[in-house]
Design a protein that fits this description.
Layout (H helix, E strand, L loop, with lengths): L3 E8 L5 H17 L3 E4 L6 H9 L2 E4 L11 E3 L7 H8 L4 E3 L3 H15 L3 E5 L5 H7 L7 E4 L2 H6 L8 E5 L5 H14 L13 H14 L4 E5 L5 H12 L5 E4 L15 E6 L5 H14 L1 E8 L11 H4 L4
Parallel strand pairs: 1-11, 1-12, 2-3, 2-4, 4-5, 6-7, 6-8, 9-10, 9-11
Helix pairs in contact: 8-9
The structure holds iron/sulfur cluster (SF4).
The site of iron/sulfur cluster has 15 residues, from helix 1, helix 4 and helix 8.
């Protein structure tokens, strides 16, 4: 007799519309132009996705200078500094921008604040490609990165009356709210985004985790270590009451010692993790346990993003 395990399956989980669009752009670019198609940076932060695309002709590089002039290049969903497409144009390259439209929205917002003469605060994580891309929309010094409440408290603007903030799209709602609260208290006139910069997918996945965390002896988040929204799901789950929370790339990375004393497991996936990996975890669980799955659905997602016109018609 296998022991019983209750599995609370979060919904929504896994792929978001921006990730889905970015992957389709690479697939359609290969269909239209043939292999190889170069991709600057991991198209989305998931090894499984990257390996699958590599097998059909994508070549992943970190910088544009690693790409030949005569092959198409795709820019990742996280966005790129303005200098990158400018360089592609200078080299007369074919490029496809897979930047998520919700990241582009933040770029546009930052540009508007800059044009209006405001100093811009970006709430985000240093070194994340989205932060590099957003800061790279504007000249050096135009954007100040803030990563903690302490930094928000210590920040000294050039002109406190002429400030705006934008945020990375994949942050923890609570952590960001604390930093925004500190900025608003110190600079009541600070301009805020018209609509929340933290994207719908990040918000919905965090909401779904909060709905099940309290019941979990263990929460498993399927996602990559460099996936910001996946790492945030672990933090949000712990904060919302999960006894332990772990990030796993896939079933093979599960350490079964985590399951000692676990009767109820929460399961979700970051926005860049494909559903096949979640199903792989469920299959592994079924080998050791008699599992009973309860889906905890907090929201239906219907968001889709259009593909660039240049490749929309290409077969996958
Ligand atoms: S997580 Fe949000 S911002 Fe990032 S690709 Fe998905 S929808 Fe776009």
């Amino acid at each position: 007799m296998r022991p019983k395990l209750k599995v609370l399956l979060a919904s929504p989980r896994g792929f978001c519309a921006g990730v889905d669009r970015a992957i389709q752009i690479v697939e359609k670019a290969i269909a239209k132009y043939g292999a190889p198609v170069y991709v600057r940076h991991e198209i989305v932060h998931n090894r499984h996705v990257v390996e699958r695309l590599r097998a059909v002709g994508a070549v992943f590089v970190e910088e544009l200078e690693e790409c030949p002039d005569d092959r198409p290049v795709v820019f990742s969903a996280h966005g790129v500094p303005k200098s990158v497409p400018s360089e592609a144009v200078r080299r007369n390259m074919i490029y496809l921008d897979a930047t998520c439209p919700l990241v582009s929205k933040v770029h546009v917002e930052a540009g508007r604040h800059f044009d209006a003469g405001r100093e811009i605060v970006l709430i985000g994580h240093s070194g994340h490609p989205e932060v590099v891309g957003t800061m790279g929309q504007l000249p050096p010094g135009a954007v100040t990165l803030i990563q903690t409440v302490e930094e928000a408290e210590a920040f000294t603007p050039r002109d406190p009356a002429n400030l705006a903030f934008v945020t990375q799209t994949t942050l923890s709602l609570e952590d960001t709210a604390e930093m925004v609260e500190a900025l608003r208290r110190r600079f009541p006139g600070i301009s805020a985004p018209h609509k929340e910069d933290i994207c719908y997918a990040t918000t919905n996945r965090q909401e779904a985790v909060k709905a099940l965390a309290e019941r979990c002896d263990l929460l498993l988040v399927v996602g990559a270590r460099n996936s910001s929204n996946s790492v945030r799901l672990v933090e949000v789950g712990l904060r919302a009451g999960a006894k332990q929370a772990r990030l796993v790339d896939e079933a093979a990375n599960i350490d079964w010692s985590w399951f000692d004393g676990v009767e109820t497991l929460g399961l979700t996936a970051g926005a860049s993790a494909p559903e096949v990996l979640v199903q792989g975890v469920l299959a592994s669980l079924s080998e050791c346990y008699s599992i009973e799955i309860e889906e905890i659905a907090t929201r239906q997602e219907t968001v889709t993003f259009k593909l660039p016109r240049a490749i929309a018609a290409a077969a996958e």
